[in-house]
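Title: [Solved] Nuclear transport factor 2 family protein 3D structure

Original question kept below for reference.
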Amino acid sequence: MKSLGWKTLVTTAAVASLSGLALTAVPSQAASPGAGARQVHTTASNSQQAHAALSPRQLAALPLTNRHLTAHETANLAVVLRDYHVAEGKSLDVNTFVNSFAKDGVFNDMVPGQAYRGKALGDVLPYMANLFPDVHRELKRITVSGDVISIELSIQGTFEGPLQSPAGTVKPNGARIDVPTADFWYLHNGKVEQFNCYVGYSTMYAQMGVNFDWASAVAKG
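Solution (posted by the thread starter after getting help):
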């Protein structure tokens, strides 16, 4: 099954209305990422609205495992696809990502066992974009079941930002990454209540030239 890149999908996915679902863009302002992360700015004005329309033709272009989605499921999928779009290096929008979560919503980075809630949700996207300014998520397989969306994907990008490690700073080397990932989204009333993300960190670090030998990697710098 062919995967779908965001350059193709997002251009066509925000052109019509879908059962009253409207995604409102946020005003341009600087985000407040954690120490060491680059600043991120949104680019939309107050008056702009992006209507998350997923027409039958657009849905047909997605790598869906089940194409008989209800209107409710399609609306949930639109929310998740929007979050992937605003996580892209070229269209980073921290506020839109954070606002897609419920008040008590949580992002779980499952492999290292880290959880982000509230304002801390704003640290997630800048961290990845700091390491990989061109970060892109290639969606390979999407399963929608009511309020649960499961996605097989790969995180791609170029290692162009410093990585802080237990042994010191690993300097960027321009290496390309293509990391197997699995995401599980749990929504309620159009908001993300829980997002569990499983990233193949061992593969990612190996592609960055780390191989878990932090001291050696720092020495190479």
